[in-house]
Amino acid sequence: MRDITVTGAGRIRFSRLVLAVALAALVTGCSSGRGFGPTKTASVDPMPVGSVSAMTEPQLRATADRLGQSYVRDPKNKTVAMQYANVLQMSGRNDQALAVMRRLAIDYPKDRDVLAAYGKALAAAGELEPALDAVRRAQTPEYPDWRLLSAEGAILDQLGQPEEARALYRKALEIQPNEPSVLSNLGMSYLLQNDLRTAEIYMKQAAEAPGADSRVRQNYALVVGLQGRFAEAEAIAARELTKEQAQANVAYLRSMLAQNNSWSQIAQEDKRRRS
After folding, report:
1. 201: Cβ–Cβ under 8 A, 6 or more apart, which residues?
2. Where are the domains of the chain?
3. Of 61, 94, 99, 100, residue with least CA distance to 80
4. Taking a C-beta distance cutoff of 8 angstroms, is the pair 60, 87 a contact?
5. For residue range 212-269, what is the model confidence (pLDDT) as tens digits?
6. CATH fold label, 4-270
7. Does the CA dihedral 91-93-96-102 come out positive or negative?
8. Residue 237 to residues 43, 63, 240: CA-CA distances in angstroms?
């Protein structure tokens, strides 16, 4: 919940949170998805995205240092560079991650795995138009990958094109039904437009779907908390975090919504939309 801000007009905006679920799968997900071949390396084993998201900050730093040393020895090693960039992004070092992926994209200008991860790095650094171009170039129209469709949708949401984004999410769900990351992104799309009730419907489906990870369930806790149901949000968050972390997140959410009467503005907009 740390990356959320609410404007004076009550419009909710997100930085990494909106893109995280959609784009995290691109580093390892595409190489095992349709139309992508596995990447082999003799020195570094593939590292599941979920294991990175569960790391503490000291663990992230240690992993970044280890991968950084491997990267310096062989910057053209695709697997090492992509894992290194992913850990850097999880550590908040987006500019450094983008530099790693930009160099790799020069070495592998037609590699779809690399283009997808490059798009992720661009989006995390706030360069949304170039990110959109990279993700679209990584896609194969005649054999589309649902992860890339979802990632493209998340970027379009950030660019203020929710209808186009939702069409892509639904297309992704046709390929991968009940996929929790796509359902969560669809919920985020409505959340960005302050349609909290519809957002909760999709977030709840995402959180209850097989394969839902911690980020998906925390997003569900977020949308519940944004509607003022703080005890329920804390209970959901406590399944993924320590009790202290869940309490701290909800306390932050309370204070954020209290600023500039933000909660009242959001509630009024949601009420007008339903009437």
Report:
1. 187
2. 4-270
3. 100
4. yes
5. 888 888 889 989 998 989 999 999 988 877 888 888 878 877 877 776 455 455 556 5
6. 1.25.40
7. positive
8. 37, 26, 5
